[in-house]
Predict the 3D structure of the following.
Amino acid sequence: MNFAEVRADFPILNDIIYLDSASTSLTPEPVLKAVLEYYRGYNANVGRGVHRLSQIASQRYKDAHRKVADFIGAKEEEIIFMKNATEAINTVANGLKYKPGDKVVTTLIEHHSNFLPWLRLKRFGVIVDIVKPNKDGIFDVPDFEDAIDHKTRLVAVTHVSNVLGTITPIEEISAICKKKGTLLLVDGAQSVPHINVDVRGLGCHFLCFSGHKMLGPTGTGVLWMKEDLFDELEPPAFGGGMINDVSLDDYKLATGYERFEGGTPNIAGAIGLGKAVDYLNKIDMNKIKEHEAKLMERLLEGLLEIDRVEVYGSLNLKERIGVVSFNIKGLNPQNAALMLDEASNIMVRSGHQCCIPLMKHLGLKEGTVRASLYLYNTEGEVERFLETVEAIATVV
Ligand SMILES: Cc1ncc(COP(=O)(O)O)c(C=O)c1O
């Protein structure tokens, strides 16, 4: 399957240019079909019965865990389905036990979803230390060495910035965490959909990401965690489907991912996410990365050539992937986004990008315009986008 063929699976692209995949990606026909097949053909609850439909649904739901596990080099039992990356991160933040004086280290570039859950812990006496990048969003690894000490319970960092597209040096941070005996949580919301991510290679303890940003249905997200940490984390919800035994005064939690998936899960969404993983594998993650890198090179180069356009983040293509934030001088980013839509049916994100601390650090009160790429974008779309930005920059 080549990238031109891919577009036939996204009929929504017939009359729009979608440059907002970092918010949520589009959903290809095979994923929609898998969701419909569940509802039309074997609509039943999972892990709860023996009738035929229940068995088919349970098997497909389990298969989805295996497919996602294989995709990131994990074990099936370690994949926990959640409704989004936010829920996955909160499950870790709220599920660990802390002593007053324990420390959590995070960074200034985090999405609010990997910032607020940690900031909230201050109320319980946890110290939160924040590592800052340079103005291009690049970290100095020794800053982590300084911040992480023997009191640090956990380090929470994003793999790729949703504002700047910059890549965080996870392996180096992981080596420091290992040396200091600290847990490491990686927010993979912007990396897992775009580059090969292998959890063992990354060297983290938790990886959180969104299914809906990688061609899966909305309402899907993933928490991966090492199985030997299951007992350290309190499940986010107690009830049906997550126990092995219950007596009048106690309960025994299930041993697998079920213990963190209390209640009826998003079965259709999970099956759809499994299909999305099949789709990405069929195209090949290395090819997707290459395709996006090529488009990003032109996008960056083109934006930098336009007078009155200011681009944020490192310009070194080795340090970033397919997300770019910019502003047109004198134009509010929300207005710029509206004008891109009105002029050329181009969809981009605008505003603070759920990263108010980073916006303050960059001195950007109104935020930025953000264009983000995925496998279905084309060179022609990038050119149309650049022409439209140039036309807007000329008239304001
Ligand atoms: C880096 C990052 N982390 C976390 C999230 C939150 O993801 P979700 O909306 O799936 O909860 C996002 C969403 O944009 C993100 O970009």
